[in-house]
Amino acid sequence: MPTYPQEPDRAAPDQAEPVPEGAGPPPRGDLPPPGPPRHGVANGEPGPDAAGRAPAEDEYTTAIQELEDRWRRALADLDNLRKRHARELERERAVERSRTAAAFLPVLDNLELALTHAGADPGAIVEGIRAVRDQAVNVLELLGYPRHAETGVAFDPALHEVVGIVQDPDAAPGTVVEVLRPGYGDGERQLRPAAVTVAKRE
């Protein structure tokens, strides 16, 4: 008796293909892909990182603007201080010049009187000029510039300028023999040293 091949049973369920070990179920089209949830991204809203970054940038921008404003104000204050100091310095100079010039006005008045009486006794004219000279020396001393015209004193390089060395048996070696031009002032307030001749050292 002939045998015919049997058809598979259609009612039996299909045998599932073997699934690799560790693999999950296949993704379904109606489910989102696996991964960490992202809040608000599906609705088009910014994420938490963007929301946290904007306020920090605003704070940095505000701080920079405040520093720039303070820097500009400091520069303006410094410029105003410099201009004020320059004005005060110039005013002090003008006051000092005026005070010095006013101190010499009596000297000029006496010179005018001496010239007015130039035709009088020559001896009186000489005495008048000497008095005017002494008055001018006194004014310089009051201003802080004393006169140095002493002879017989030891040579001092801070006060004297040697313009000649002479042989003088009556003077001690290294002492001032003659003052050719008086000096005025001391130390840092020296107007000029005295020009002198000094006795020769043996």
Give keywords.
3-stranded mixed β-sheet, 202 residues, alpha+beta, two-stranded antiparallel ribbon, elongated, 44% helix
Query: What is the assembly state of the chains in this entry?
Result: single chain
H/I helix tally: 3
- Helix and strand string, N-terminal first? HHHEEEEE
Report the helical percentage: 40-55%
Uncertain stretches = 10-16
Distance between the termini: 168 Å
User: Beta-sheet strand percentage?
Assistant: 5-15%
Total beta-strand segments: 5
Mean pLDDT: 79
Strand order of the largest sheet: 2-5-3
Biggest sheet overview: 3 strands, mixed
The radius of gyration over CA amounts to 54 Å
Shape: elongated
* Class by alpha and beta content: alpha+beta
